[in-house]
Amino acid sequence: MLAPGEEARLIAAWQRDRDEGARDRIVRAYARLCYGVAARYASNPDRMEDLAQEGMFGLMRAIDLYDPSRGTRFSTYGRMWIRSFVSNAVARVSTVVDVPARTFLSIRSGRVEAGMEAAVAASSPHVSLDASSKDGEFDLVERLASPERNPEEVMDAISTREYHARLVGASLSRLTERERAIVVRRSLSAVPETLEEIAAGLGLTRERVRQIEAGAHAKMRRELERRAGGGAILD
User: Fold this and answer.
1) Are 78 and 59 within 8 A, CB to CB?
2) Shortest CA distance to 186 belongs to which of 165, 223, 215?
3) Which residues are CB-contacts of 5 (< 8 A; sequence separation ≥ 6)?
4) Can you say whether residue 98 is alpha, beta or left, with left for phi > 0 and alpha for psi between -120 and 50 degrees?
5) Which CATH architecture has domain 1-94?
6) What is the pLDDT of residues 34-49, one digit of tens each?
7) pLDDT tens string 56-93
8) pTM score
9) Where are the domains of the chain?
């Protein structure tokens, strides 16, 4: 595997200068990962090479889109794309007969073209979409919406959660030890405690705990707004 600094340099060389040698170096470094992911998806060893190749296509896509400013390691980002390409290719590489897109539409609408019955039976339950076949303006495969988020959307969500966690951690650091304990026990625990339970544990009245909690929330809100440019509000 490449050292982080070398990896970052090679990615920048590809994204900035389209240095194919730099991209190929990264692909070679992660080839073992591509084969490892393919091995988990391949029920037939003969198909593993095809799936590993699909994983490398996913890796190249990751190299194109990787943004180090998001704070995500490239190994994590690249693995997401590799898995996405490999999992999406499983049905296609495991079927013997490819069914063109127009035939697929006929199957879906109940109108199987004459002479294609055997092909349909042989390819079921997996139907391979021929991306070169057009149905009007767009490829058929582009019209099949997936309910799953793509790897880039997943990493965006992870980065957003990490950013929010840092904001909350920073706001908690502005509290006193007692304020922080009350906020954690009331709002950030897996099983939040009641005012009565916290009051009993701290030797305070229920109203005093409520006042401390309100003051702590106000401090946290100010810190969140300061760090997030006024856009973060504590619920």
Assistant:
1) yes
2) 215
3) none
4) beta
5) Up-down Bundle (1.20)
6) 988 888 887 777 778 8
7) 999 999 999 999 888 888 988 999 999 988 888 876 66
8) 0.46
9) 1-94, 95-147, 152-227
Other CB atoms within 10 A of residue 168 CB? 18
For the stretch 176-207, pLDDT in tens is: 999 999 998 888 877 888 989 999 988 999 89
Whether the CA torsion 41, 43, 45, 47 is positive or negative: it is: negative
Nearest to 120 by CA among 130, 131, 107: 107
Instruction: Give the DSSP H or E segment for 15.
Output: helix 4-17
> In Å, what is the CA distance from 161 to each residue of 11, 76, 154, 164?
25, 16, 11, 5
CA distance 82 to 87: 9
Please tell me the CATH code under which domain 152-227 is placed. 1.10.10.10
Task: List the structure tokens of 215.
Answer: 């003051």
